[in-house]
Amino acid sequence: MARDQNESKTVQTDDASGRGSVGDFKVSFPARMRSYKEAEIEVVVDVMRNAEAQTQGQYMRQFQADFEEYTGADHAFAVDNCTNALRLAAMRCELEPGDEVIISGYTFCATAIPYGETGAQIVWADIDPDTWVVDPADIERKITDRTKAIVVVHLLGMPVDMPAVMAVADEHGLRVVEDCAQAPGAQINGQHVGTFGDFGCFSLHAAKQITTLGEGGMLTCKFDEDAELIPGLRHNGARAYPEGRERYWDPAMGNVDLDMAGVWPKNFCLGEAQCALGSEMLKSLDEINDTLIEQGEKIKAGLADTPEISFAQIPAGYRHVFHQFVLHFDGADFGATRNDLLDIMAFEKKIRVIVQYHPLYRYPLFQKLGAGEQDCPVLEGWWGDTFSFPWWCGIPDETINYLVFSLKETIAELKSR
Q: Residue 394: which domain range?
Protein backbone atom coordinates (compact mmCIF):
# COMPACT_ATOMS: atom_id res chain seq x y z
CA MET A 1 0.00 0.00 0.00
CA ALA A 2 1.54 3.29 -1.06
CA ARG A 3 1.84 6.03 1.51
CA ASP A 4 0.16 9.36 0.87
CA GLN A 5 2.92 11.73 -0.17
CA ASN A 6 1.57 14.32 2.28
CA GLU A 7 1.70 11.93 5.23
CA SER A 8 4.48 12.86 7.63
CA LYS A 9 7.02 10.22 8.63
CA THR A 10 8.03 12.26 11.66
CA VAL A 11 6.93 11.21 15.13
CA GLN A 12 7.48 13.81 17.83
CA THR A 13 8.42 12.75 21.34
CA ASP A 14 10.35 14.26 24.21
CA ASP A 15 11.73 10.84 25.14
CA ALA A 16 14.67 9.75 23.01
CA SER A 17 14.22 6.17 24.21
CA GLY A 18 10.95 5.86 22.31
CA ARG A 19 8.89 5.22 25.45
CA GLY A 20 5.60 6.91 26.23
CA SER A 21 2.35 7.21 24.29
CA VAL A 22 2.72 9.37 21.19
CA GLY A 23 0.95 9.69 17.85
CA ASP A 24 -1.77 7.29 16.77
CA PHE A 25 0.04 3.98 17.20
CA LYS A 26 -1.95 0.85 17.93
CA VAL A 27 1.00 -0.56 19.88
CA SER A 28 3.41 1.83 21.60
CA PHE A 29 5.92 1.71 24.45
CA PRO A 30 4.57 2.46 27.92
CA ALA A 31 6.79 4.82 29.86
CA ARG A 32 7.23 2.18 32.56
CA MET A 33 8.01 -1.53 32.39
CA ARG A 34 4.94 -2.22 34.55
CA SER A 35 2.55 -0.39 36.87
CA TYR A 36 3.17 -0.26 40.62
CA LYS A 37 1.36 -2.70 42.88
CA GLU A 38 -0.59 -1.32 45.83
CA ALA A 39 1.93 -2.83 48.28
CA GLU A 40 4.70 -0.92 46.52
CA ILE A 41 2.79 2.35 46.73
CA GLU A 42 2.04 1.76 50.39
CA VAL A 43 5.68 1.31 51.42
CA VAL A 44 6.59 4.65 49.83
CA VAL A 45 3.72 6.43 51.59
CA ASP A 46 4.69 4.80 54.88
CA VAL A 47 8.25 6.14 54.62
CA MET A 48 6.94 9.60 53.76
CA ARG A 49 4.69 9.57 56.81
CA ASN A 50 6.71 7.74 59.40
CA ALA A 51 10.44 7.48 58.66
CA GLU A 52 12.55 9.85 60.72
CA ALA A 53 15.45 9.82 58.28
CA GLN A 54 14.67 10.48 54.62
CA THR A 55 18.12 9.40 53.39
CA GLN A 56 21.07 7.27 54.54
CA GLY A 57 18.94 5.34 57.00
CA GLN A 58 17.46 1.96 57.81
CA TYR A 59 15.70 1.51 54.45
CA MET A 60 18.94 2.01 52.54
CA ARG A 61 20.69 -0.55 54.73
CA GLN A 62 17.79 -2.99 54.29
CA PHE A 63 17.68 -2.57 50.52
CA GLN A 64 21.41 -3.16 50.27
CA ALA A 65 21.12 -6.28 52.42
CA ASP A 66 18.16 -7.52 50.36
CA PHE A 67 20.09 -6.98 47.14
CA GLU A 68 23.11 -8.86 48.47
CA GLU A 69 20.87 -11.76 49.48
CA TYR A 70 19.07 -11.84 46.12
CA THR A 71 22.16 -11.68 43.91
CA GLY A 72 24.74 -13.35 46.15
CA ALA A 73 26.94 -10.24 45.93
CA ASP A 74 29.53 -9.70 48.63
CA HIS A 75 28.68 -6.00 48.99
CA ALA A 76 25.90 -3.77 47.59
CA PHE A 77 25.52 0.02 47.70
CA ALA A 78 22.38 1.91 46.71
CA VAL A 79 23.02 4.93 44.47
CA ASP A 80 20.94 7.50 42.62
CA ASN A 81 21.36 5.92 39.16
CA CYS A 82 23.36 3.31 37.27
CA THR A 83 25.52 5.94 35.58
CA ASN A 84 26.88 6.90 38.98
CA ALA A 85 27.34 3.25 39.94
CA LEU A 86 29.50 3.02 36.82
CA ARG A 87 31.23 6.25 37.85
CA LEU A 88 32.09 4.87 41.29
CA ALA A 89 33.49 1.74 39.66
CA ALA A 90 35.53 3.92 37.30
CA MET A 91 36.94 5.82 40.27
CA ARG A 92 38.06 2.57 41.88
CA CYS A 93 39.65 1.41 38.61
CA GLU A 94 41.97 4.44 39.01
CA LEU A 95 42.13 5.15 35.28
CA GLU A 96 44.32 7.98 34.06
CA PRO A 97 45.19 9.62 30.73
CA GLY A 98 47.38 7.18 28.82
CA ASP A 99 45.48 4.15 30.11
CA GLU A 100 43.09 2.16 27.93
CA VAL A 101 39.72 0.71 28.88
CA ILE A 102 37.95 -1.84 26.67
CA ILE A 103 34.18 -1.31 26.40
CA SER A 104 31.49 -2.93 24.30
CA GLY A 105 30.74 -0.82 21.23
CA TYR A 106 27.04 -1.70 21.40
CA THR A 107 25.34 -0.33 24.52
CA PHE A 108 23.72 2.78 25.97
CA CYS A 109 26.00 5.80 26.19
CA ALA A 110 26.03 5.80 30.01
CA THR A 111 28.21 2.68 29.97
CA ALA A 112 31.12 4.56 28.44
CA ILE A 113 30.80 8.18 29.58
CA PRO A 114 32.17 7.67 33.13
CA TYR A 115 35.26 5.96 31.69
CA GLY A 116 35.84 8.57 29.02
CA GLU A 117 35.69 11.21 31.76
CA THR A 118 38.80 9.75 33.37
CA GLY A 119 40.91 10.69 30.35
CA ALA A 120 41.61 7.05 29.51
CA GLN A 121 41.31 6.00 25.88
CA ILE A 122 38.21 3.96 25.08
CA VAL A 123 38.84 0.89 22.93
CA TRP A 124 35.63 -0.53 21.45
CA ALA A 125 35.06 -4.29 21.60
CA ASP A 126 33.01 -6.16 19.01
CA ILE A 127 29.95 -8.32 19.66
CA ASP A 128 29.53 -12.09 19.48
CA PRO A 129 27.60 -12.96 16.30
CA ASP A 130 25.34 -15.42 18.13
CA THR A 131 24.53 -13.77 21.49
CA TRP A 132 24.81 -10.13 20.30
CA VAL A 133 26.70 -9.09 23.44
CA VAL A 134 30.41 -8.36 23.78
CA ASP A 135 32.80 -11.04 22.53
CA PRO A 136 35.47 -12.15 25.05
CA ALA A 137 37.78 -13.20 22.20
CA ASP A 138 37.67 -9.68 20.75
CA ILE A 139 38.35 -8.22 24.20
CA GLU A 140 41.49 -10.35 24.46
CA ARG A 141 42.55 -9.36 20.93
CA LYS A 142 42.46 -5.67 21.89
CA ILE A 143 44.42 -5.83 25.14
CA THR A 144 47.69 -3.87 25.11
CA ASP A 145 50.24 -3.01 27.77
CA ARG A 146 48.16 0.14 28.45
CA THR A 147 44.89 -1.71 29.12
CA LYS A 148 43.76 -1.31 32.70
CA ALA A 149 40.08 -2.30 32.80
CA ILE A 150 37.33 -4.10 30.90
CA VAL A 151 33.68 -2.95 30.93
CA VAL A 152 31.22 -5.59 29.74
CA VAL A 153 27.49 -5.10 29.20
CA HIS A 154 24.78 -7.69 29.75
CA LEU A 155 22.76 -5.94 27.09
CA LEU A 156 19.03 -6.45 26.53
CA GLY A 157 19.03 -8.99 29.38
CA MET A 158 21.56 -11.38 27.79
CA PRO A 159 24.53 -12.36 29.99
CA VAL A 160 28.02 -11.96 28.59
CA ASP A 161 30.23 -15.07 28.76
CA MET A 162 31.68 -14.06 32.11
CA PRO A 163 33.79 -17.19 32.75
CA ALA A 164 35.65 -16.41 29.52
CA VAL A 165 35.93 -12.70 30.35
CA MET A 166 37.29 -13.43 33.82
CA ALA A 167 39.84 -15.88 32.44
CA VAL A 168 41.15 -13.12 30.13
CA ALA A 169 41.12 -10.53 32.92
CA ASP A 170 42.90 -12.79 35.39
CA GLU A 171 45.59 -13.62 32.86
CA HIS A 172 46.32 -9.93 32.25
CA GLY A 173 45.61 -8.56 35.73
CA LEU A 174 42.71 -6.34 34.68
CA ARG A 175 39.77 -4.88 36.56
CA VAL A 176 36.33 -5.99 35.33
CA VAL A 177 33.16 -3.91 35.54
CA GLU A 178 29.82 -5.51 34.68
CA ASP A 179 27.11 -3.17 33.40
CA CYS A 180 23.97 -5.04 34.51
CA ALA A 181 21.57 -2.14 33.91
CA GLN A 182 19.36 -4.23 31.62
CA ALA A 183 19.89 -7.60 33.28
CA PRO A 184 18.81 -7.74 36.93
CA GLY A 185 18.16 -11.40 37.68
CA ALA A 186 20.09 -12.69 34.66
CA GLN A 187 22.32 -15.66 35.49
CA ILE A 188 24.93 -18.05 34.16
CA ASN A 189 24.57 -21.54 35.62
CA GLY A 190 22.78 -20.09 38.64
CA GLN A 191 25.27 -17.28 39.34
CA HIS A 192 23.88 -13.77 39.04
CA VAL A 193 25.44 -11.24 36.72
CA GLY A 194 27.19 -8.53 38.68
CA THR A 195 28.97 -11.07 40.89
CA PHE A 196 31.65 -12.29 38.49
CA GLY A 197 33.77 -9.16 38.07
CA ASP A 198 35.15 -6.60 40.50
CA PHE A 199 31.99 -4.50 40.23
CA GLY A 200 28.39 -4.84 39.08
CA CYS A 201 26.32 -1.80 38.13
CA PHE A 202 22.52 -2.04 38.12
CA SER A 203 19.83 0.38 36.99
CA LEU A 204 16.55 1.06 38.76
CA HIS A 205 15.24 3.40 36.05
CA ALA A 206 11.52 3.40 35.24
CA ALA A 207 12.13 1.44 32.03
CA LYS A 208 13.87 -1.39 33.87
CA GLN A 209 12.36 -4.50 35.43
CA ILE A 210 12.25 -2.88 38.88
CA THR A 211 12.46 0.83 39.62
CA THR A 212 12.83 3.20 42.56
CA LEU A 213 10.48 5.99 41.53
CA GLY A 214 11.97 6.53 38.09
CA GLU A 215 15.68 6.69 38.93
CA GLY A 216 18.05 4.67 41.05
CA GLY A 217 20.90 2.21 40.92
CA MET A 218 22.97 -0.33 42.79
CA LEU A 219 26.71 -1.00 42.86
CA THR A 220 27.97 -4.44 43.85
CA CYS A 221 31.58 -5.10 44.84
CA LYS A 222 33.53 -8.30 45.18
CA PHE A 223 36.46 -7.10 47.29
CA ASP A 224 36.41 -5.73 50.83
CA GLU A 225 39.05 -3.09 50.04
CA ASP A 226 36.74 -1.54 47.43
CA ALA A 227 33.66 -1.79 49.63
CA GLU A 228 35.40 0.03 52.48
CA LEU A 229 35.88 3.12 50.31
CA ILE A 230 32.52 3.30 48.53
CA PRO A 231 30.44 4.93 51.34
CA GLY A 232 32.73 7.95 51.53
CA LEU A 233 33.08 8.25 47.76
CA ARG A 234 29.28 8.02 47.47
CA HIS A 235 28.52 10.59 50.18
CA ASN A 236 30.89 13.58 50.07
CA GLY A 237 33.61 11.93 52.13
CA ALA A 238 31.29 12.14 55.16
CA ARG A 239 31.74 9.75 58.05
CA ALA A 240 31.24 9.61 61.82
CA TYR A 241 33.97 10.41 64.30
CA PRO A 242 35.09 7.46 66.45
CA GLU A 243 32.79 6.66 69.34
CA GLY A 244 33.65 7.61 72.88
CA ARG A 245 34.38 11.32 72.44
CA GLU A 246 34.18 13.30 75.67
CA ARG A 247 31.98 15.91 73.96
CA TYR A 248 29.79 14.57 71.11
CA TRP A 249 29.89 17.97 69.36
CA ASP A 250 33.68 18.49 69.47
CA PRO A 251 34.99 19.42 66.94
CA ALA A 252 31.74 18.83 64.97
CA MET A 253 28.98 16.27 64.63
CA GLY A 254 30.56 14.49 61.67
CA ASN A 255 33.90 14.27 59.91
CA VAL A 256 34.83 14.69 56.22
CA ASP A 257 37.91 12.91 54.92
CA LEU A 258 39.60 11.67 51.76
CA ASP A 259 39.09 8.05 50.68
CA MET A 260 41.34 8.00 47.60
CA ALA A 261 44.35 10.24 47.12
CA GLY A 262 43.54 13.08 44.76
CA VAL A 263 39.94 11.92 44.19
CA TRP A 264 37.12 14.28 45.19
CA PRO A 265 34.09 12.43 46.63
CA LYS A 266 30.58 12.80 45.18
CA ASN A 267 26.97 12.68 46.32
CA PHE A 268 25.29 9.69 44.69
CA CYS A 269 22.88 8.81 47.53
CA LEU A 270 19.43 7.25 47.12
CA GLY A 271 16.52 8.40 49.30
CA GLU A 272 14.82 6.24 51.93
CA ALA A 273 11.45 6.06 50.16
CA GLN A 274 13.20 4.87 47.01
CA CYS A 275 15.13 2.25 48.94
CA ALA A 276 11.96 0.99 50.63
CA LEU A 277 10.33 0.66 47.21
CA GLY A 278 13.41 -1.15 45.90
CA SER A 279 13.18 -3.77 48.64
CA GLU A 280 9.48 -4.29 47.91
CA MET A 281 9.90 -4.51 44.14
CA LEU A 282 12.81 -6.91 44.50
CA LYS A 283 10.27 -9.45 45.78
CA SER A 284 8.64 -9.44 42.30
CA LEU A 285 11.76 -9.44 40.14
CA ASP A 286 11.78 -13.15 39.35
CA GLU A 287 8.07 -13.02 38.48
CA ILE A 288 8.63 -10.02 36.21
CA ASN A 289 11.52 -11.72 34.45
CA ASP A 290 9.54 -14.93 34.05
CA THR A 291 6.78 -12.94 32.36
CA LEU A 292 9.24 -11.22 30.00
CA ILE A 293 10.83 -14.56 29.11
CA GLU A 294 7.41 -16.09 28.42
CA GLN A 295 6.47 -13.17 26.17
CA GLY A 296 9.71 -13.48 24.25
CA GLU A 297 9.26 -17.20 23.72
CA LYS A 298 5.72 -16.66 22.41
CA ILE A 299 6.97 -14.20 19.79
CA LYS A 300 9.84 -16.45 18.81
CA ALA A 301 7.46 -19.39 18.43
CA GLY A 302 5.09 -17.29 16.33
CA LEU A 303 7.92 -16.35 13.98
CA ALA A 304 9.57 -19.77 13.82
CA ASP A 305 8.41 -20.16 10.21
CA THR A 306 9.78 -16.74 9.19
CA PRO A 307 13.42 -17.27 8.15
CA GLU A 308 13.94 -13.57 7.45
CA ILE A 309 13.76 -12.90 11.22
CA SER A 310 16.35 -14.18 13.69
CA PHE A 311 17.03 -13.79 17.40
CA ALA A 312 19.99 -13.90 19.76
CA GLN A 313 21.01 -17.45 20.60
CA ILE A 314 20.85 -18.21 24.33
CA PRO A 315 23.68 -20.50 25.51
CA ALA A 316 22.85 -23.47 27.73
CA GLY A 317 22.70 -22.50 31.40
CA TYR A 318 22.03 -18.81 30.68
CA ARG A 319 19.00 -16.96 32.06
CA HIS A 320 18.35 -14.24 29.46
CA VAL A 321 15.74 -11.90 30.97
CA PHE A 322 14.56 -10.06 27.83
CA HIS A 323 14.82 -6.47 29.03
CA GLN A 324 14.04 -5.49 25.44
CA PHE A 325 12.97 -7.58 22.48
CA VAL A 326 15.34 -7.14 19.54
CA LEU A 327 14.96 -8.86 16.17
CA HIS A 328 17.25 -9.11 13.14
CA PHE A 329 15.82 -8.78 9.63
CA ASP A 330 17.41 -10.21 6.49
CA GLY A 331 15.69 -9.01 3.32
CA ALA A 332 18.68 -9.37 1.03
CA ASP A 333 17.03 -12.05 -1.14
CA PHE A 334 14.28 -9.64 -2.17
CA GLY A 335 16.15 -6.34 -1.92
CA ALA A 336 14.43 -5.02 1.21
CA THR A 337 16.12 -3.05 3.97
CA ARG A 338 15.28 -2.54 7.62
CA ASN A 339 13.88 0.89 6.78
CA ASP A 340 11.58 -0.66 4.19
CA LEU A 341 10.31 -3.03 6.86
CA LEU A 342 9.89 -0.39 9.55
CA ASP A 343 8.17 2.05 7.18
CA ILE A 344 5.29 -0.41 6.86
CA MET A 345 5.33 -1.54 10.49
CA ALA A 346 5.30 2.01 11.86
CA PHE A 347 3.19 3.96 9.39
CA GLU A 348 0.76 1.31 8.12
CA LYS A 349 0.55 -1.29 10.90
CA LYS A 350 0.86 1.50 13.51
CA ILE A 351 3.37 -0.37 15.67
CA ARG A 352 5.98 1.83 17.30
CA VAL A 353 9.01 -0.23 16.38
CA ILE A 354 12.34 1.40 17.22
CA VAL A 355 16.06 1.01 16.60
CA GLN A 356 17.62 0.61 20.01
CA TYR A 357 21.08 2.19 19.62
CA HIS A 358 23.75 3.23 17.22
CA PRO A 359 27.12 1.68 17.97
CA LEU A 360 28.58 4.22 20.39
CA TYR A 361 31.51 5.15 18.15
CA ARG A 362 29.02 6.47 15.57
CA TYR A 363 27.52 9.07 17.91
CA PRO A 364 28.80 12.66 17.64
CA LEU A 365 29.53 12.76 21.39
CA PHE A 366 32.17 10.04 21.21
CA GLN A 367 33.55 11.16 17.85
CA LYS A 368 34.05 14.70 19.14
CA LEU A 369 35.77 13.43 22.28
CA GLY A 370 38.30 11.25 20.45
CA ALA A 371 36.56 7.87 20.65
CA GLY A 372 35.33 7.52 17.10
CA GLU A 373 37.77 4.89 15.86
CA GLN A 374 36.61 1.28 15.81
CA ASP A 375 37.42 -2.20 14.63
CA CYS A 376 34.11 -4.00 15.12
CA PRO A 377 33.23 -5.81 11.86
CA VAL A 378 30.57 -8.07 13.40
CA LEU A 379 28.70 -5.15 14.95
CA GLU A 380 29.04 -3.09 11.78
CA GLY A 381 27.55 -5.90 9.69
CA TRP A 382 24.74 -6.66 12.13
CA TRP A 383 23.26 -3.59 13.75
CA GLY A 384 21.87 -1.97 10.59
CA ASP A 385 19.28 -4.75 10.22
CA THR A 386 18.06 -4.85 13.83
CA PHE A 387 14.96 -3.35 15.41
CA SER A 388 12.90 -3.65 18.59
CA PHE A 389 9.26 -4.42 19.19
CA PRO A 390 7.36 -2.35 21.78
CA TRP A 391 8.04 -4.05 25.09
CA TRP A 392 6.74 -4.12 28.64
CA CYS A 393 5.85 -6.65 31.32
CA GLY A 394 2.38 -8.09 30.75
CA ILE A 395 1.80 -7.63 27.01
CA PRO A 396 -1.63 -9.16 26.24
CA ASP A 397 -1.68 -12.23 24.01
CA GLU A 398 -3.80 -10.41 21.44
CA THR A 399 -1.09 -7.72 21.19
CA ILE A 400 1.63 -10.35 20.81
CA ASN A 401 -0.43 -11.98 18.07
CA TYR A 402 -0.86 -8.62 16.34
CA LEU A 403 2.90 -7.97 16.44
CA VAL A 404 3.66 -11.38 14.95
CA PHE A 405 0.90 -11.23 12.32
CA SER A 406 1.84 -7.68 11.26
CA LEU A 407 5.51 -8.58 10.85
CA LYS A 408 4.65 -11.60 8.73
CA GLU A 409 2.27 -9.53 6.59
CA THR A 410 4.91 -6.85 6.15
CA ILE A 411 7.55 -9.32 4.98
CA ALA A 412 5.06 -10.89 2.55
CA GLU A 413 4.30 -7.43 1.15
CA LEU A 414 8.01 -6.66 0.70
CA LYS A 415 8.54 -9.97 -1.08
CA SER A 416 5.70 -9.23 -3.50
CA ARG A 417 7.01 -5.85 -4.63
A: 285-416
